[in-house]
Design goal:
It contains 15 helices and 20 strands. By secondary structure, it is α/β, with parallel strands linked by helices. Strands 10-9-8-7-11-12 form a 6-stranded mixed sheet, sandwiched between helices. Strands 18-17-16-14-19-20 form a 6-stranded mixed sheet, with helices on both faces. Helix 3 links the parallel strand 9 and strand 10. It is flat and about 70 Å long.
Length: 501
């Protein structure tokens, strides 16, 4: 068994014991199994770990004296008070709260989600507003700031990371644990009745915004949609990273299998069948798939920030044109797609309503700003008095796909369903990708076994970097789908381990 073990150097790890004190274990060496043989039951004897390995963790569970449910303990009770980080954090929160009374704002609380305007979980750095205001960098979470409180919700993958990154100005809400309120429940508890709660409508899907509005109405609160500016951006100012400018590239027919014109023809057939004359697509992966384009705006995701509006007789791509190469421009022109400025999407939506277009809206993914802009525009025109139903499924169209007045068609995105059914070229590409990755993994296992035999000391970071090196040597490699999560013993309690934090 010794030939299957290696010595690793573990980074400093913080462990919480049952007395709620923090203990810091210095770097230590300990024995681990080779990753090529991870299943213990295959061995005749159970592998032995070094006696220097830490003892079992004692988990802290706090039980409320007035209830049998388990409740979350605020992160502020686990962390040191004061210090430079506390002062810096307080300055951000103070600046944000000062904006609450700004003319045109006038709110008592503000919600800062993780998503961008396209409901992406993984986003460009310039849109990491929740991370900026709270310093919590996990991919999932929601920050809520009132005039005197700040709380952050995240799931079990990030509890330990949030404990480390949040300072005592914040209360950590462990979403999913018994007794932990939702953001709306918490606001209904801590705010006096009749308060105004602000959100950036671009950062919430229409469905999410409507659900939140209904939930806070139980506390007699009002949801305020702040279209003109994002409050976090107002205090981020010059230090905010610039939007990504990486060029868009073509995804050739060898890999796509179907050309753009054929995909658009099929989509327009579905529009007619549903009684719609246009559709707005905001999910970045759907746009990339439909147009056979790929981008590099989001780490580990081959997408570009854009909106797409497809009509019966045309299409418009709303994107930063500095990212459009001559080759991509020719590709779009051949498919009958025009370019528009990314920021002009709302004016286009209003124009569609003005000319009587029935717009297909997937309210589970399209943001509240777009949906509300269209619904509001529909009510501006007298000719629409007979078609004001908010849940109309079909409409009578003329030969150009237009009806007597604008009306939304509320359905799930047809692009998502089409994209899920892979054609032969896509299936072949997926198989070949897995074969190439398997070859890289085989090289990695062989390298690791050799290091084990030589009793080389390795860190989790070195192992992850070596795996990336082997993968990057494969034909067609562009990027990984996410950073390798590498952990040894104590480090494995960090489910989404990130050594930058």
């Amino acid at each position: 068994m010794e030939s299957l073990a290696a010595s690793f150097s573990a980074s400093t790890t913080t462990i919480l014991n049952s007395s709620s004190k923090l203990h810091h274990h210095p770097p230590r060496r300990f024995r681990v199994l080779s990753l090529s043989l991870p299943i213990f039951h295959k061995f005749k004897t159970c592998p032995k770990f070094s006696s220097k390995s830490p003892n079992h963790l004692n988990l802290l569970i706090v039980r409320s004296s007035s209830s049998s449910s388990i409740t979350a303990k605020p992160s502020s009770e686990f962390q040191k008070k004061g210090g430079r980080d506390r002062k810096e954090e307080d300055n951000k929160l103070r600046a944000l709260r000062e904006l609450f009374t700004k003319p045109g704002v006038n709110v008592d609380a503000y919600i800062i989600p993780s998503q961008d305007a396209h409901q992406s979980e993984f986003i460009a750095e310039c849109y990491m507003r929740r991370a900026y205001i709270s310093r919590f960098t996990g991919s999932a979470g929601t920050a809520v700031v009132t005039k005197d409180k700040a709380a952050l919700w995240t799931d079990g993958r990030y509890f330990l990371q949030a404990e480390k990154q949040l300072n005592s100005s914040w209360v950590l809400m462990r979403a999913g644990n018994l007794g932990v309120p939702t953001p709306s429940e918490w606001l209904n508890t801590v705010l006096a009745p009749g308060c105004r709660i602000g959100i950036d409508p671009f950062l919430f899907s229409s469905d999410a915004a409507k659900e939140f509005k209904e939930d806070i109405s139980k506390g007699n609160h009002e949801l305020v949609l702040l279209y003109d500016f994002n409050l976090v951006d107002e205090i981020w100012k010059e230090s905010r990273p610039t939007p990504p400018k990486e060029p868009i590239r073509l995804h050739g027919p060898k890999y796509a299998g179907v050309d753009v014109s054929s995909k658009l023809l099929s989509l327009r057939s579905e529009l007619r069948h549903a009684g719609a004359s246009a559709i707005v697509i905001s999910m970045l992966d759907e746009i990339a798939w439909l147009l056979n384009l790929r981008g590099n705006d989001v780490p580990h995701s081959p997408v570009m920030y854009a909106y797409l509006v497809v009509e019966i007789d045309g299409a418009k791509l709303f994107v930063d044109d500095t990212k459009v190469t001559p080759e991509v421009m020719e590709h779009l022109t051949n498919a009958g797609i025009e370019l528009r400025a990314y920021e002009s999407i709302l004016s286009e939506i209003e124009s569609l309503a003005a000319k009587g277009a029935n717009l297909w809206l997937d309210t589970s993914s399209v943001n509240a700003a777009i949906v509300n802009a269209y619904e509001s525009a529909c009510y501006k025109y007298p000719w629409n008095s007979a078609t004001k139903s908010r849940r109309k499924k079909t409409a009578n169209l003329d030969s150009n796909g237009q009806s007597g007045g604008p009306c939304a068609v509320y359905r799930s995105s047809p692009v998502s369903l089409r994209k899920a059914v892979k054609n032969d070229a896509e299936l072949e590409g997926m198989r070949n990708c897995h074969l190439r990755d398997a070859a890289a993994l085989a090289q990695f296992w062989a390298w690791l076994e050799d290091e084990i035999q030589r009793d080389v000391i390795l860190t989790e970071v070195e192992v992850a970097d070596k795996l990336l090196e082997f993968r990057s040597h494969q034909d067609g490699f562009l990027d990984t789908s996410f950073d390798t999560i590498s952990g040894i013993l104590v480090s494995t309690i960090m489910i989404e381990l990130n050594y930058e934090t």
